[in-house]
Amino acid sequence: MASHTVRQKLPHNLSYFFRRLNSTVPSYTTTAAPPLKSAGKSTSFTFLGNSQIPISPLPNLEDSSTLPKTAGKPNISSGKPNTATDPVLNLHDSEKLFSSVSTPKLIKSSITLQLASAEPMVDFGMWVMNSKFMEIPIIRKMILDVIEYTFYEHFCAGKNLKEADKTVKRLWDGGLRAMLDYGLEHANDNESCERNLDEFIQTIESTQTHPVSPVSFVVVKITAICPPILLKRISDLLRWEYKDKSLHLPWKLKTFQVFANSSPLYHTTKRPKPLTIEEERDFQLAYQRLTKICQKSLQANIPLLIDAEDTAIQPAIDYFTYSAAIQYHKDDEPLIFNTIQAYLKDAKERLVIAKRDADKMNVPIGFKLVRGAYMSSERKLASCLGVESPIHEGIQNTHACFNECADFMLHEIANGSGSVVLATHNIQSGKLAAATASNLGIERDNPKLQFAQLYGMAETLSFGLKNAGFRVSKYLPFGPVDQIMPYLLRRAEENRGLLATSSLDRQMIRKELIRRLTSK
Ligand SMILES: Cc1cc2nc3c(=O)[nH]c(=O)nc-3n(C[C@H](O)[C@H](O)[C@H](O)COP(=O)(O)OP(=O)(O)OC[C@H]3O[C@@H](n4cnc5c(N)ncnc54)[C@H](O)[C@@H]3O)c2cc1C
Q1: Which of 7, 119, 247, 275 could bond to 241 as cystine, CB 3.0-4.6 Å?
Q2: Which branch of life, at top level (predicted)?
Q3: What pLDDT is stored for residue 80 in this prediction?
Q4: CB–CB of 472/446 below 8 Å?
C-alpha cells in the first residue's frame, strides 16, 4: 500500500485541508450507504435519556437572575465572591491583561491578526496555497518563508521540540501552561502510524525535562495512530452492535457506552462484514500504539488529551479512548481526557452516559469540551445522505449545549468527581463557567477545572482567566511549516471576517499599544 504519511509534502496536506475547509465529505465516508430518509424533523431540543431538555439561550452575565441556578441545588459557595456584583473576569484592563507580553510581540500579533481577519487577504492566501505555484520549488519556498515569519510564528510553537520548548517557557513565564500538539494529520498506513507513535513518545518524554511541568497535557489524535479507514470500519461495527444486540464483536474490549439514544446512526445502513484477519491485526497494532502512549504518559506523569474528529469515525475514537482510560489511570487522577463536541445534538447525552459509566466502574476520566470544528463537512455528509444533520440547528443551541455540558461537569467537580478542560474562545462561555465555578465553591486553582485556548488566539480570555486565578493552557501545535499548513489554514479561516474570533483581541491589543506608546 502506498505510504500517505503525514510527513508527505504540502500538496497532500493541502488537499486534506481543502477537503475539510471546502466542506466536502471526508474520503473514508464516501463508501457510505445510499441515502436514508430523514430521521425526523429537527427541533431546538437536546435529548437526555427520555426527557427533553430545552436548550436555553446564553444568559446575560451582567444580570444575576440569568446565572445558572445549579440544577435545583442551593449555591454552595458561602463566603465566595458574589459574581453578580463582583465579576470574576476582568477583560477590560489591557495593562493587566498583557503585562507579560513585550511591545514588539504585541505589534506583531496586532499585524498578524489584522491580516488574518481581512477576508480578501485570506482568500488570496488560500488561492495561492492551492495553486500550481506551490509546485514550483523556488516559489513554494518563498511562500513558505513568508508564512513562517507571519502566521506560523503567531499560531505555532516551533518546528521541533527544542523550539517548542522555548515557547512553552515563555508561556509559563506569563502564567500559562501548554498543551503540546505535534502537528499530525491523518495517517493512512501502519508505517506512518508507527512514525507518528515515535513523535508522540518523544513529545511525552520531552515533558519530563522540566522539574515542575509547564506542560499540562500532550495532545493525541487517534487518526495519527490508526488509519481512518479502519476507524470507519470499527465505527460501523460499533453502530450496528448498538442497533442489533445479536452482533458479537470478538475483538471488543471493556469500554463505556459510546452511543446515546440521540446519536446519529445513519452512517451504517447495512450489517457490516466482520473485520478481516488483516483488519483485526491492524486494529490490534493501533490499540498497542495507544497503550504505549498511555504507558509512557503514566511514567512521565503527564495526562493525554484525545482530540475529537468527525462523526463517521468518532465512535471508534471514543471506543479507543474509553478502553484505554479503563486500563490506564493514576489512582484517582484521570490520565486520559476525551473530547466532547457540543455542536452535536447528542453531545450532552453522550457526556452524561460516559461519566456515569466511568463512575460505576470507578474509573477516573476527564473531558475536554469544545464546540467542534467539522461543522460544514458534517452538514454536507448529512445532506448528501438525505438525513437530519447531527449539528444543532443554530449557533445559539450550540452555545447552550456547550454551557450545559460545562455546567454538568462543574457540578460533578463540586460534588468531588470529574475533571474538565473548557476549550473555548467564547467570552460568554468563559465568563459563565468562571461565575458558575465560583458560585459552586470550586477553588479557582482547582486542577480539576482548566481552561484552554489555541496558541495565538483569544489572548484576552486566556490572560483574563489566568489573572482571575484559574488554570489556563494554550493548545500549542508544533512541527515543520509545511506539515502544519492545514492547521494554519484552519486558523486563518476561523479568523476571517469582521466578526472573527480575534476581534476582541485586536481591539484590546490596540488599546494596550496606544497606552504603552502614549504613556511616559
Ligand atoms: C484547546 C482547544 C482544543 C480543541 N480541540 C478540538 C477537537 O479536539 N475537536 C474539534 O472538533 N474542535 C476542537 N477545537 C476547536 C473548537 O471546536 C472550535 O472550532 C473553536 O474553538 C471555536 O469554538 P469556541 O468555543 O471557541 O466558540 P466561538 O468562538 O463562539 O465559535 C463558535 C463557532 O462555532 C461554530 N458553530 C458551532 N455550532 C454551530 C451551529 N449550530 N450553527 C452555526 N455555527 C456553529 C461556528 O463556526 C462559530 O464560528 C479546539 C479548540 C480549542 C480552543
Answers
A1: 247
A2: Eukaryota
A3: 43
A4: no
